[in-house]
Design goal:
By secondary structure, the protein is of the alpha/beta class. It contains 14 helices and 13 strands. The strands form three sheets. Strands 7-6-5-11-12-13 form a six-stranded parallel beta sheet, with helices on both faces. It has a four-stranded antiparallel beta sheet with strand order 3-2-1-4. A three-stranded antiparallel beta sheet has the order 9-8-10. Strand 8 (240-247) and strand 9 form a beta hairpin. The radius of gyration is 25 Å and the shape is globular. The protein starts with 5 loop residues before the first strand and ends with a helix. The structure holds nicotinamide-adenine-dinucleotide (NAD) and zinc ion.
Length: 359
């Protein structure tokens, strides 16, 4: 039986296009096939891609959306202009655009064609404020995005990073043991980078909300100590602190100045290291357990400025039976798991929230 084919997704650029065709059987199941306009695709795709694409058309049917998407992803489709999206596929296509690692200059057009509703951030802040008023136990989990407004970079833009080195390869036991010079330079840079930087408005608002009994605990992945400097009392530092250091060999505490000056441990001559948790180390048991206990019992958990990429801290928000909220500049892979997601700057969203709570 031949069924009517319909356009599921059509993308293009000047003079050409790729079309994902679909046909739906009487049970509502779709099968797909890809079609490319060869002449136009030559300058868009590698030669191999073009050959594959034209050969695939009409010969090979793809049985699931995942398969179709997988095949499409080979052509970096999000960077092409969205021409058509089938009504039934709007959500799935928008999802795929958000999950894609391919840069697109057409994000706004993709939003429109997928019928994404305009989010009303005021309304979202209103909801958050209501939930905070109602909650008797609110835990905030913060990440590097909490401190970017203080001028501390997060780990997101690797091209701009120090000596083009991926921080996750230097903040490791391996680097400490096998490349101490690099490890030492990296942490000297990070310690010195905090000179002259201070907690921002967002940190101050969280401290004020704690005083007003609207925030009860803060668990942070940050090592900058800004929550305490801003006046928050109940802070669990899950990844330690960069404000002090110790000897890797005997454990004796030391001052950051000693590390910066390149001194060895005054007790045993061992290597000095900051009191941060390196990527391949265990989290401090006390801070972790207290954070888990607080989150399990929480009525509301608010994650601020974390991509939730780092295990095991990224498990915390989902241990609660309470409501979950994420405040983050950009979408993360975890967005779907939250009850409320607010895309915005931490400082601005917190400013909006506190003004709702206090008036
Ligand atoms: P991350 O760098 O992986 O993600 C930060 C997230 O914050 C990003 O998704 C980004 O979009 C968002 N963001 C940036 N600016 C924001 C703003 N103004 N408002 C709201 N969101 C904003 O950070 P992570 O999830 O914390 O994981 C990185 C690891 O690196 C952690 O272990 C962390 O301890 C460490 N780190 C700490 C610091 C610090 O102490 N300040 C800085 C960099 C990295
Ligand atoms: Zn020592």
């Amino acid at each position: 039986m031949t069924l009517q084919e319909q356009v599921v997704l059509k993308v293009g650029a000047e003079g050409g296009s790729i079309t994902l065709w679909g046909s739906k059987n009487t049970l509502g199941q779709w099968t797909f096939s890809l079609e490319g306009n060869e002449s136009a695709l030559e300058f868009l795709l590698d030669e191999d891609d073009v050959v594959l694409l034209t050969r695939n058309r009409s010969k090979q049917w793809l049985d699931t959306w995942e398969e179709a998407l997988d095949r499409l992803n080979g052509y970096k489709w999000p960077r092409l202009y969205p021409l058509e999206v089938h009504d039934e596929f709007r959500d799935r296509v928008w999802h795929a655009i958000q999950a894609s690692r391919v840069e697109t200059q057409w994000l706004w057009e993709w939003r429109e064609i997928c019928g994404v509703q305009e989010v009303d951030i005021e309304e979202q802040i209103h909801v958050l404020a209501d939930w905070m008023k109602a909650s008797k136990a609110t835990v905030v989990l913060t990440g590097a995005g909490m401190s970017t407004e203080s001028g501390v970079p997060d780990f997101r833009s690797p091209s701009g990073w120090w000596r083009n080195i991926d921080p996750t390869t230097v903040a490791t036991v391996e680097a400490l043991e096998e490349n101490y010079a690099l490890f030492h330079d990296f942490y000297s840079m990070r310690i010195q980078a905090l000179n002259g930087l201070y907690p921002n408005e967002g940190h101050r608002i969280l401290a004020e909300l704690e005083k007003k009994n609207l925030v009860h605990k803060i668990a942070t992945q940050n090592v900058d100590g800004f929550h305490q400097l801003a006046g928050s009392q109940n802070v669990y530092e899950l990844h330690g602190s960069i404000r002090s250091c110790r000897c890797e060999d005997c454990g004796k505490g030391a001052k950051n100045e000693e590390l910066l000056q390149g001194h060895a441990c005054s007790h045993c001559g061992g290597r000095l290291r900051p009191n941060v948790v390196l990527f391949d180390e265990m989290l401090p048991q006390d801070a972790w357990q207290q954070a888990v206990d607080a989150i399990v019992d929480a009525e509301l958990v608010i994650v601020i400025g974390s991509s939730l990429n780092v295990y095991p801290a990224n498990q915390l928000p989902f241990m609660t039976k309470g409501k979950t909220v994420a405040i983050n500049l950009e979408p993360t892979a975890m967005d779907d798991n939250f009850d409320l997601v607010i895309h915005g700057k931490a400082g601005e969203v917190l400013q909006g929230t506190i003004s709702q709570l206090i008036n």
